[in-house]
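Morning. Coffee machine broken again, so started the prediction first thing and wrote up yesterday's gels while waiting. Chain of 238 residues, entered below exactly as on the submission form.
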Amino acid sequence: DGFKAVFDPFDSSNIFALVQNGALYNVTNFLSFTTGFNQNDDFPWDMPYMVSHHAQEMYAGSYRIYHNASTYVPDWKPISGDLTDGGYHRYHYITSIDESPKSKYLLFAGTSDGRAWKSLNKGKTWIDITKGLPKRYITQILASENDSNTLYVTQSGYMYNEFVPHIYMSTDLGASWQTISGDLPPVATNCLLVNKSNDSILFAGTDVGVYATTDLGQTWKRLGNNMPIFPITELAIE
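Came back before lunch.
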């Protein structure tokens, strides 16, 4: 089972690929890239990982956040404690990691049990910003490309037998949240993409296709002529 592939933005020939349960590889040399991961950690089936926007560094998650100071040599080190509600970590783990494109010290993390976190100092300390969000599986936590104080969370309620769209926005780094789900269909929201010059224009990947809004989530419209109805788990603008 294969998952997300990531290109090093500072060296496009340096490519990573993920297999289940945190098995990360450097595709360039076909070598495992997991040195430093604690093998006693329970890693999620689809481990979140990313290359920094600001330097050739990487972040990944089990039930805690790991940092690697290089995109060439694996030497992972944990930079957080348990960010979940605890318990059997096979079901309590990090589901999403993001770094603000506007601030190199600002990190965010979301979990399968609905916890949201921020770090203002590159992972040295973590602040719980869950208050105001429902206790639902966080499918993505996403920093705005336009404003360092703005971030978004998408969620799925399937674990709770709930069929409700969940997209939330904060303009104060998670101190408060507002729903921007509007008239989305009653299915899981898996991912979000923010226009690089205007936060009012958003694209949502749902279990029934891609939706767009031009009024910051008040109304949404399904995109794609004759596009089949199927789950969208990742979006990009090229």
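The first strand starts at residue 2 and ends at 8. Going to sketch it on the whiteboard this afternoon.
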